[in-house]
Design brief:
mainly alpha, 11 helices, 0% strand, globular
Length: 281
């Protein structure tokens, strides 16, 4: 039992988080490319034309390379965080600067895994919550880069939340089920009210699915706190970006990263504390 507790301790979970964060960098970079290639192939088949697509990309192939000189990254150059520090943030072959986002994602995942371990203790369920958080990190960064929340991640996250609840690993099944329903319908309603009033789309359909998944994991009571937290955080970031003139074309910021961040904050704070802060306890 002591050995199992050691394996699930925050320091060990942090090391696991570094490794998972390295894999998340692959998912963040390659999944949009895989989806784009699939869309082009499907469109070409529908139009009965030849698809102009790049070589196949998966999460495991081809081997990772430097985007500047195409140097194949060796195993010792791909150790989470350590390799980045050892290489001083540059490619070993051409000395091109490596984006600091790679180690940042690794460190963020490590910190979140350790926080989950501290929050839930050395219980097997901690690995379930670490999985939940890891998927949210990937979704947040992909949405920030592409304004896309892939069904390949949001839908499995939704079903995993319901299954985890049914197995007794997270929250009662009724709370999970109604959380999924409330999460989807709340943003779906806002979307249609905004569209009917303005004729414009205020958010993507992926946001509905993500909030449904968050409801399946956190329960219906946490839907409003998550949305409120995401709205405040998103507004603050949007105002700061506008003031700094860094808003992208179209003058918008994706909502998914703020939903994910708010959900993680609610998870770490705990439902009783959040409800108490809101005066709902």
């Amino acid at each position: 039992m002591e050995f199992a507790q050691l394996l699930l301790s925050p320091p060990v979970l942090a090391l696991l988080g570094l490794c998972i964060g390295s894999f998340l960098n692959v998912v963040i970079h390659r999944l949009p490319l895989m989806l784009e290639r699939g869309w082009k192939i499907d469109s070409a088949e529908m139009l009965d034309v030849k698809a102009d697509v790049a070589e196949p990309v998966t999460l495991s192939k081809p081997r990772s390379r430097c985007p500047s000189c195409r140097h194949a990254i060796a195993w010792h150059e791909n150790i989470p965080l350590v390799s980045y520090l050892w290489l001083k943030g540059r490619c070993s072959a051409c000395k091109t600067r490596i984006s600091p986002r790679y180690p940042l994602v690794e460190v963020l995942t490590a910190v979140l895994f350790a926080a989950i371990g501290w929050r839930f203790g050395a219980q097997p369920e901690v690995l379930v919550w670490c999985t939940f958080v890891a998927v949210l990190v990937a979704l947040a960064v992909i949405d920030w880069d592409t304004t896309l929340l892939p069904d390949n991640l949001t839908l499995p996250l939704l079903w995993a939340g319901l299954v985890a609840s049914a197995l007794g690993w997270t929250i009662p099944l009724a709370q999970s089920l109604w959380g999924a329903v409330a999460g989807y319908l709340s943003l779906w309603s806002v979307y249609w009210m905004f569209k009917l009033a303005t004729g414009k789309e205020g958010m993507g359909h992926g946001d509905f699915k993500l909030l449904a998944a968050l409801g399946a994991w956190l329960g219906w009571q946490m839907i409003l706190p998550v949305v409120l937290g995401a709205s405040v955080l998103g507004a603050a970031v949007g105002i700061a970006m506008k003031a700094g003139r860094t808003l992208r074309e179209g003058r918008y910021v994706p909502f998914g990263p703020f939903l994910a961040g708010s959900a993680i904050a609610v998870l770490l704070a705990g439902a009783p504390r959040v409800l108490d802060w809101l005066g709902w306890a």
